[in-house]
Predict the structure of snRNA-activating protein complex subunit 3.
Amino acid sequence: MAEGGGRSNPNVPVYEYVDINTQVFHVGSFRQLWLDSLPPDVYSFEELDEEAQDAKFSEEFGVPAETLAELRAICSVDSLKSYPDDEPPDTSVVPPDPQLACLRLRKRKQDYKNSLAKDYTGRHDAYTNEMELQSVGRKPADADNAVPEGEIVLTFNIVYPVIFYRFKYVRPHQTLQVLGSQKLAELRDAICCVSDLQVFGEFSSVPDAVPQFVSKDHYKSAFFYFEGVFYNDMRYPECRDISQTTREWAKTRDFPAFTVAKMEETTFYDLKVKIGYPYLYCHQGDCEHVVILTDIRLIHRDDCRDRKLYPLLTYKHRVVTRKCSVCHLYISRWITTNDSLAPMDPCLFCDQCFRLLHYDKEGNKIAPFKAYSYVDPGAFN
Ligand SMILES: [Zn+2]
Ligand SMILES: [Zn+2]
Protein backbone atom coordinates (compact mmCIF):
# COMPACT_ATOMS: atom_id res chain seq x y z
CA MET A 1 0.00 0.00 0.00
CA ALA A 2 1.24 3.44 -0.90
CA GLU A 3 2.09 6.01 1.76
CA GLY A 4 -0.40 8.82 2.27
CA GLY A 5 -0.22 12.15 0.52
CA GLY A 6 -0.86 12.75 -3.14
CA ARG A 7 -2.64 10.00 -5.01
CA SER A 8 -3.23 10.09 -8.68
CA ASN A 9 -6.15 7.65 -8.76
CA PRO A 10 -8.85 8.00 -6.08
CA ASN A 11 -9.50 4.26 -6.18
CA VAL A 12 -6.01 3.23 -5.14
CA PRO A 13 -6.11 2.98 -1.36
CA VAL A 14 -3.52 5.12 0.40
CA TYR A 15 -3.10 5.69 4.11
CA GLU A 16 -5.13 8.36 5.78
CA TYR A 17 -3.38 7.57 9.07
CA VAL A 18 -0.26 5.47 8.60
CA ASP A 19 -0.70 1.86 9.77
CA ILE A 20 -4.25 2.61 10.93
CA ASN A 21 -6.63 3.22 8.07
CA THR A 22 -6.77 4.18 4.42
CA GLN A 23 -8.69 6.88 2.66
CA VAL A 24 -12.03 6.04 1.06
CA PHE A 25 -12.00 4.08 -2.17
CA HIS A 26 -14.50 2.19 -4.29
CA VAL A 27 -14.01 -1.57 -3.98
CA GLY A 28 -15.21 -2.47 -7.49
CA SER A 29 -13.03 0.15 -9.18
CA PHE A 30 -10.02 -0.91 -7.17
CA ARG A 31 -10.49 -4.47 -8.37
CA GLN A 32 -10.81 -3.26 -11.95
CA LEU A 33 -7.50 -1.42 -11.63
CA TRP A 34 -5.86 -4.68 -10.58
CA LEU A 35 -7.42 -6.61 -13.43
CA ASP A 36 -6.38 -3.91 -15.92
CA SER A 37 -2.77 -3.81 -14.83
CA LEU A 38 -1.99 -7.46 -13.96
CA PRO A 39 -1.35 -10.08 -16.63
CA PRO A 40 -4.12 -12.72 -16.26
CA ASP A 41 -1.67 -15.53 -15.45
CA VAL A 42 -0.79 -13.77 -12.20
CA TYR A 43 -4.23 -14.35 -10.71
CA SER A 44 -5.09 -17.45 -12.71
CA PHE A 45 -6.02 -20.65 -10.85
CA GLU A 46 -4.03 -22.67 -13.38
CA GLU A 47 -0.61 -23.73 -12.22
CA LEU A 48 2.09 -23.73 -14.90
CA ASP A 49 3.86 -27.04 -15.36
CA GLU A 50 7.43 -27.25 -14.16
CA GLU A 51 9.01 -26.68 -17.54
CA ALA A 52 7.00 -23.55 -18.24
CA GLN A 53 7.75 -22.25 -14.74
CA ASP A 54 11.48 -22.75 -15.34
CA ALA A 55 11.32 -20.96 -18.68
CA LYS A 56 9.51 -18.05 -17.07
CA PHE A 57 11.99 -17.90 -14.21
CA SER A 58 15.00 -17.92 -16.64
CA GLU A 59 13.45 -15.11 -18.56
CA GLU A 60 12.47 -12.95 -15.60
CA PHE A 61 15.82 -13.25 -13.85
CA GLY A 62 17.99 -13.42 -16.98
CA VAL A 63 19.51 -16.74 -15.89
CA PRO A 64 20.57 -19.16 -18.66
CA ALA A 65 19.07 -22.65 -18.62
CA GLU A 66 22.39 -24.34 -17.69
CA THR A 67 22.82 -22.16 -14.62
CA LEU A 68 19.28 -22.94 -13.61
CA ALA A 69 19.92 -26.68 -13.89
CA GLU A 70 23.09 -26.30 -11.79
CA LEU A 71 21.25 -24.30 -9.15
CA ARG A 72 18.55 -26.89 -9.06
CA ALA A 73 21.09 -29.66 -8.43
CA ILE A 74 22.93 -27.76 -5.70
CA CYS A 75 19.82 -26.55 -3.89
CA SER A 76 18.00 -29.83 -4.22
CA VAL A 77 16.60 -31.36 -1.05
CA ASP A 78 18.34 -34.60 -2.06
CA SER A 79 21.74 -33.04 -1.37
CA LEU A 80 20.78 -32.69 2.29
CA LYS A 81 20.18 -36.41 2.77
CA SER A 82 22.66 -38.48 4.74
CA TYR A 83 21.04 -41.84 4.20
CA PRO A 84 19.36 -43.67 1.32
CA ASP A 85 15.65 -43.26 0.86
CA ASP A 86 14.82 -46.90 1.54
CA GLU A 87 16.76 -47.06 4.84
CA PRO A 88 15.48 -44.22 6.98
CA PRO A 89 17.03 -44.22 10.46
CA ASP A 90 14.73 -44.29 13.46
CA THR A 91 15.09 -40.74 14.80
CA SER A 92 13.58 -41.59 18.16
CA VAL A 93 16.41 -43.98 19.03
CA VAL A 94 19.12 -42.41 21.16
CA PRO A 95 22.26 -44.58 21.45
CA PRO A 96 23.02 -45.88 24.97
CA ASP A 97 25.45 -43.69 26.95
CA PRO A 98 25.50 -40.83 24.49
CA GLN A 99 28.58 -38.61 24.63
CA LEU A 100 27.13 -35.63 22.79
CA ALA A 101 25.47 -33.03 25.01
CA CYS A 102 22.59 -32.63 22.56
CA LEU A 103 21.90 -36.37 22.62
CA ARG A 104 22.02 -36.47 26.41
CA LEU A 105 19.55 -33.60 26.47
CA ARG A 106 17.36 -35.43 24.06
CA LYS A 107 17.44 -38.56 26.16
CA ARG A 108 16.40 -36.62 29.23
CA LYS A 109 13.54 -35.01 27.34
CA GLN A 110 12.43 -38.34 25.99
CA ASP A 111 12.39 -39.90 29.43
CA TYR A 112 10.41 -36.97 30.77
CA LYS A 113 7.90 -37.12 27.94
CA ASN A 114 7.35 -40.82 28.44
CA SER A 115 6.49 -40.11 32.06
CA LEU A 116 3.68 -37.79 31.01
CA ALA A 117 0.14 -38.67 30.17
CA LYS A 118 -0.84 -38.86 26.54
CA ASP A 119 -0.68 -35.58 24.67
CA TYR A 120 -4.09 -34.00 24.47
CA THR A 121 -5.34 -31.77 21.69
CA GLY A 122 -8.15 -29.48 22.72
CA ARG A 123 -11.41 -30.06 20.91
CA HIS A 124 -11.40 -26.42 19.88
CA ASP A 125 -7.99 -26.71 18.24
CA ALA A 126 -9.05 -29.91 16.55
CA TYR A 127 -12.11 -28.11 15.27
CA THR A 128 -10.11 -25.14 13.98
CA ASN A 129 -7.75 -27.44 12.15
CA GLU A 130 -10.65 -29.32 10.69
CA MET A 131 -12.28 -26.10 9.48
CA GLU A 132 -9.08 -25.03 7.80
CA LEU A 133 -8.66 -28.38 6.12
CA GLN A 134 -12.18 -28.11 4.81
CA SER A 135 -11.60 -24.83 3.06
CA VAL A 136 -7.97 -24.53 1.92
CA GLY A 137 -7.81 -24.85 -1.85
CA ARG A 138 -11.23 -26.44 -1.83
CA LYS A 139 -12.91 -26.81 -5.19
CA PRO A 140 -16.69 -26.92 -5.53
CA ALA A 141 -18.48 -30.17 -6.32
CA ASP A 142 -20.75 -28.28 -8.68
CA ALA A 143 -19.03 -26.10 -11.29
CA ASP A 144 -21.80 -23.52 -10.95
CA ASN A 145 -20.53 -22.69 -7.49
CA ALA A 146 -16.96 -22.07 -8.61
CA VAL A 147 -15.53 -18.72 -7.65
CA PRO A 148 -14.20 -17.11 -10.84
CA GLU A 149 -10.59 -15.97 -11.26
CA GLY A 150 -10.05 -12.33 -10.45
CA GLU A 151 -12.70 -12.34 -7.71
CA ILE A 152 -11.96 -10.24 -4.65
CA VAL A 153 -11.78 -11.56 -1.10
CA LEU A 154 -12.50 -9.12 1.71
CA THR A 155 -11.68 -9.91 5.32
CA PHE A 156 -13.90 -8.46 8.03
CA ASN A 157 -13.43 -8.48 11.77
CA ILE A 158 -16.76 -8.37 13.57
CA VAL A 159 -16.26 -7.20 17.14
CA TYR A 160 -18.60 -8.24 19.94
CA PRO A 161 -20.89 -5.49 21.22
CA VAL A 162 -20.19 -3.52 24.37
CA ILE A 163 -23.65 -4.36 25.77
CA PHE A 164 -22.17 -7.74 26.73
CA TYR A 165 -20.72 -6.72 30.05
CA ARG A 166 -18.18 -9.53 29.95
CA PHE A 167 -16.62 -8.01 26.86
CA LYS A 168 -16.35 -4.51 28.21
CA TYR A 169 -12.59 -4.63 28.60
CA VAL A 170 -11.62 -7.13 25.93
CA ARG A 171 -12.65 -7.02 22.33
CA PRO A 172 -13.09 -10.54 21.11
CA HIS A 173 -14.26 -10.89 17.56
CA GLN A 174 -14.90 -13.22 14.71
CA THR A 175 -13.20 -12.98 11.34
CA LEU A 176 -15.09 -13.63 8.13
CA GLN A 177 -13.98 -13.68 4.50
CA VAL A 178 -16.51 -12.55 1.92
CA LEU A 179 -16.40 -12.32 -1.86
CA GLY A 180 -16.69 -8.97 -3.59
CA SER A 181 -19.71 -10.13 -5.58
CA GLN A 182 -21.64 -11.18 -2.47
CA LYS A 183 -24.42 -9.11 -1.01
CA LEU A 184 -24.06 -7.34 2.32
CA ALA A 185 -27.04 -9.37 3.51
CA GLU A 186 -24.97 -12.55 3.16
CA LEU A 187 -22.44 -11.20 5.62
CA ARG A 188 -25.28 -10.27 7.95
CA ASP A 189 -26.58 -13.83 7.93
CA ALA A 190 -23.12 -15.19 8.70
CA ILE A 191 -22.59 -13.09 11.81
CA CYS A 192 -23.53 -15.11 14.84
CA CYS A 193 -24.51 -13.21 17.94
CA VAL A 194 -26.41 -14.44 20.98
CA SER A 195 -28.69 -11.40 20.83
CA ASP A 196 -30.34 -13.07 17.86
CA LEU A 197 -31.08 -16.19 19.87
CA GLN A 198 -32.81 -14.78 22.93
CA VAL A 199 -36.28 -16.01 23.79
CA PHE A 200 -38.42 -13.49 25.62
CA GLY A 201 -40.86 -14.46 28.32
CA GLU A 202 -41.17 -16.16 31.68
CA PHE A 203 -41.66 -19.91 31.43
CA SER A 204 -41.60 -21.34 34.97
CA SER A 205 -45.18 -22.70 34.71
CA VAL A 206 -44.75 -24.09 31.22
CA PRO A 207 -41.08 -25.10 30.76
CA ASP A 208 -41.96 -27.23 27.74
CA ALA A 209 -43.60 -24.31 25.99
CA VAL A 210 -40.43 -22.32 25.32
CA PRO A 211 -41.16 -21.16 21.79
CA GLN A 212 -38.84 -22.11 19.02
CA PHE A 213 -38.95 -18.55 17.77
CA VAL A 214 -35.91 -16.58 18.75
CA SER A 215 -35.31 -12.83 18.52
CA LYS A 216 -33.94 -13.18 15.02
CA ASP A 217 -37.35 -14.37 13.82
CA HIS A 218 -39.21 -11.57 15.58
CA TYR A 219 -36.99 -8.58 15.01
CA LYS A 220 -35.45 -8.87 11.57
CA SER A 221 -34.35 -5.29 11.10
CA ALA A 222 -30.63 -4.56 10.95
CA PHE A 223 -28.20 -2.29 9.19
CA PHE A 224 -24.58 -1.89 8.24
CA TYR A 225 -23.13 1.58 8.25
CA PHE A 226 -20.33 2.38 5.77
CA GLU A 227 -19.19 5.89 4.80
CA GLY A 228 -22.36 7.92 5.29
CA VAL A 229 -24.73 5.20 4.06
CA PHE A 230 -27.01 3.02 6.17
CA TYR A 231 -27.51 -0.31 4.42
CA ASN A 232 -30.78 -1.64 5.82
CA ASP A 233 -31.97 -5.22 5.73
CA MET A 234 -35.36 -4.94 3.98
CA ARG A 235 -35.80 -8.54 2.88
CA TYR A 236 -38.91 -9.18 4.94
CA PRO A 237 -42.17 -7.22 5.15
CA GLU A 238 -41.73 -6.68 8.89
CA CYS A 239 -38.31 -5.07 8.45
CA ARG A 240 -38.11 -1.43 9.37
CA ASP A 241 -35.52 1.21 8.71
CA ILE A 242 -34.02 1.32 12.19
CA SER A 243 -31.48 3.94 11.11
CA GLN A 244 -34.25 6.51 10.77
CA THR A 245 -33.97 7.85 14.32
CA THR A 246 -30.24 8.33 13.94
CA ARG A 247 -30.60 10.05 10.59
CA GLU A 248 -33.28 12.39 11.85
CA TRP A 249 -31.25 13.23 14.90
CA ALA A 250 -28.23 13.92 12.68
CA LYS A 251 -30.29 16.25 10.49
CA THR A 252 -30.90 18.57 13.42
CA ARG A 253 -27.19 18.63 14.21
CA ASP A 254 -24.30 19.70 12.07
CA PHE A 255 -23.71 16.38 10.31
CA PRO A 256 -23.26 15.72 6.61
CA ALA A 257 -26.37 14.13 5.08
CA PHE A 258 -26.65 10.37 5.58
CA THR A 259 -28.30 8.24 2.94
CA VAL A 260 -29.92 4.79 2.94
CA ALA A 261 -29.63 1.74 0.71
CA LYS A 262 -30.67 -1.91 0.96
CA MET A 263 -28.11 -4.47 2.09
CA GLU A 264 -29.76 -7.19 0.00
CA GLU A 265 -29.22 -5.12 -3.14
CA THR A 266 -25.68 -3.99 -2.44
CA THR A 267 -22.60 -6.05 -3.21
CA PHE A 268 -19.21 -5.41 -1.66
CA TYR A 269 -18.04 -4.20 -5.08
CA ASP A 270 -20.57 -1.35 -4.77
CA LEU A 271 -19.11 -0.20 -1.48
CA LYS A 272 -16.96 2.80 -0.76
CA VAL A 273 -14.89 2.06 2.32
CA LYS A 274 -11.69 2.63 4.21
CA ILE A 275 -9.54 -0.33 5.19
CA GLY A 276 -8.91 -0.46 8.95
CA TYR A 277 -11.69 1.97 9.76
CA PRO A 278 -14.38 1.14 12.33
CA TYR A 279 -17.85 0.81 10.82
CA LEU A 280 -21.03 -0.51 12.36
CA TYR A 281 -23.37 -3.47 12.24
CA CYS A 282 -26.51 -2.99 14.32
CA HIS A 283 -29.28 -5.53 14.95
CA GLN A 284 -31.88 -6.31 17.60
CA GLY A 285 -32.31 -2.59 18.07
CA ASP A 286 -29.21 -1.87 20.09
CA CYS A 287 -26.78 -4.72 19.60
CA GLU A 288 -23.98 -2.77 17.96
CA HIS A 289 -20.93 -4.46 16.54
CA VAL A 290 -17.90 -2.61 15.27
CA VAL A 291 -17.03 -3.95 11.82
CA ILE A 292 -13.53 -3.49 10.42
CA LEU A 293 -12.37 -4.34 6.91
CA THR A 294 -8.85 -5.58 7.51
CA ASP A 295 -7.78 -6.91 4.13
CA ILE A 296 -8.73 -6.83 0.49
CA ARG A 297 -7.07 -8.94 -2.19
CA LEU A 298 -7.57 -11.02 -5.32
CA ILE A 299 -8.51 -14.64 -4.76
CA HIS A 300 -5.66 -17.15 -4.96
CA ARG A 301 -5.72 -20.74 -6.13
CA ASP A 302 -5.08 -21.89 -2.55
CA ASP A 303 -8.16 -20.06 -1.27
CA CYS A 304 -11.45 -21.82 -0.86
CA ARG A 305 -12.97 -21.74 -4.33
CA ASP A 306 -16.42 -22.99 -3.41
CA ARG A 307 -18.73 -20.00 -3.44
CA LYS A 308 -21.22 -21.79 -1.19
CA LEU A 309 -18.77 -21.74 1.72
CA TYR A 310 -18.56 -17.96 1.75
CA PRO A 311 -18.76 -15.94 3.97
CA LEU A 312 -16.04 -18.12 5.38
CA LEU A 313 -15.44 -18.07 9.11
CA THR A 314 -11.67 -18.02 9.67
CA TYR A 315 -11.47 -17.04 13.31
CA LYS A 316 -13.84 -17.16 16.23
CA HIS A 317 -13.12 -15.99 19.73
CA ARG A 318 -13.84 -18.69 22.27
CA VAL A 319 -15.84 -17.77 25.33
CA VAL A 320 -15.68 -19.60 28.63
CA THR A 321 -19.05 -21.26 29.00
CA ARG A 322 -21.13 -20.79 32.11
CA LYS A 323 -21.94 -24.14 33.59
CA CYS A 324 -25.01 -25.22 35.48
CA SER A 325 -24.74 -24.27 39.17
CA VAL A 326 -25.89 -27.73 40.27
CA CYS A 327 -23.91 -30.20 38.20
CA HIS A 328 -21.12 -27.81 37.07
CA LEU A 329 -20.98 -29.98 33.99
CA TYR A 330 -23.45 -28.89 31.36
CA ILE A 331 -23.86 -25.50 29.72
CA SER A 332 -26.70 -23.50 31.24
CA ARG A 333 -30.07 -23.35 29.52
CA TRP A 334 -32.19 -21.68 32.22
CA ILE A 335 -31.82 -18.67 34.43
CA THR A 336 -34.06 -18.25 37.49
CA THR A 337 -34.85 -15.36 39.79
CA ASN A 338 -36.75 -15.09 43.11
CA ASP A 339 -35.94 -18.75 43.46
CA SER A 340 -35.92 -20.09 47.05
CA LEU A 341 -34.39 -23.36 45.83
CA ALA A 342 -31.40 -21.69 44.22
CA PRO A 343 -28.14 -20.86 45.99
CA MET A 344 -27.98 -17.43 44.35
CA ASP A 345 -30.09 -14.94 42.46
CA PRO A 346 -30.11 -15.04 39.49
CA CYS A 347 -29.03 -18.65 39.10
CA LEU A 348 -28.12 -20.73 36.06
CA PHE A 349 -29.21 -24.33 35.42
CA CYS A 350 -28.87 -26.93 32.74
CA ASP A 351 -32.14 -28.30 31.45
CA GLN A 352 -32.01 -31.53 33.41
CA CYS A 353 -31.06 -30.09 36.80
CA PHE A 354 -33.57 -27.30 36.32
CA ARG A 355 -36.44 -29.74 35.90
CA LEU A 356 -35.33 -32.17 38.62
CA LEU A 357 -34.99 -29.39 41.18
CA HIS A 358 -38.06 -27.32 40.46
CA TYR A 359 -40.85 -29.73 39.52
CA ASP A 360 -42.48 -32.80 41.00
CA LYS A 361 -43.20 -35.98 39.06
CA GLU A 362 -46.38 -34.53 37.60
CA GLY A 363 -44.49 -31.51 36.34
CA ASN A 364 -45.88 -29.07 38.92
CA LYS A 365 -43.76 -26.30 40.41
CA ILE A 366 -42.72 -27.16 43.94
CA ALA A 367 -41.80 -23.59 44.90
CA PRO A 368 -42.42 -20.11 43.51
CA PHE A 369 -39.74 -18.81 41.12
CA LYS A 370 -39.38 -17.17 37.76
CA ALA A 371 -37.58 -18.93 34.91
CA TYR A 372 -36.21 -17.55 31.66
CA SER A 373 -34.51 -19.17 28.75
CA TYR A 374 -30.74 -18.59 28.74
CA VAL A 375 -28.41 -18.71 25.75
CA ASP A 376 -24.77 -18.98 26.65
CA PRO A 377 -22.41 -17.00 24.40
CA GLY A 378 -20.08 -20.01 24.59
CA ALA A 379 -22.70 -22.19 22.93
CA PHE A 380 -21.18 -21.08 19.62
CA ASN A 381 -17.66 -22.23 20.49
ZN1 LIG B 1 -25.20 -8.66 18.20
ZN1 LIG C 1 -26.90 -29.31 35.65
Residues 15-62 form one domain. The chain has a mean pLDDT of 87. The CA atoms of residues 220 and 305 lie 30 Å apart. The chain has three domains: 15-62, 124-316, 334-380.
